[in-house]
Amino acid sequence: MPEGDTVWHTAANLREDLVGRTLTRCDVRVPKFATVDLTGEMVDEVLSRGKHLFIRVGPASIHSHLKMDGSWRVGRHRVDHRARIILEAGDIRAVGIDLGVLEILERDNDESAVAHLGPDLLGADWDPQLAAANLVADPARPIAAALLDQRVMAGVGNVYSNELCFIFGHLPTAPVRDIADPLRLVSRTREMLWANRSRRNRTTTGDTRAGRQVWVYGRAGQPCRRCGTPIAYDGEAERVQYWCPSCQR
Q: What residues does the FPG-type domain cover (predicted)?
């Protein structure tokens, strides 16, 4: 599932393949921007901001958000109906597939699209003190909802939200006022994303072996790795939740 670490890794790959190259093809398959053609322009920068990705080309900025199912692929993959944009620079082809958001912005003003975000967990603006203050600003808010709010800190998705609640021993529905040390929680969040930013297979347990990478996410009915209690699951919530009924209170 795309989260801040996935987007950071995607941006790094696109940066390596595209920056400094001149586009020989630009095919935008979103009606509002279908007439935009950046062919002949050079790719200057690729950067991530939380779950957002920007490709700065000439006077424009290609802004995308992967949402739940999106991805960028580099290589001579077959292009099908899921492609939202195709960029080519000589023998390099980058395809944005099932992107939840794709828009072409004026480069000089592209950061306005992410001005609402909190500190970027993988960015130069990371500020743990501000993130901790944002997290507990509404004491009655459920922890999972606060973690998923990109205005609190940018980069957490549902996998990390569920895993962090387990690690700190709280139910996803518990209020943020129950967090004893908010600064420790946001600092651990940053450590986890930072450790996974270059990995293809994310791990929150520290074990990269297949089937051992996560504590609770996606493990409904399986035994808790700490106490053996079957992991509970709520698929009716706005975002799916997993927890251990014994380890989390």
A: 215-249
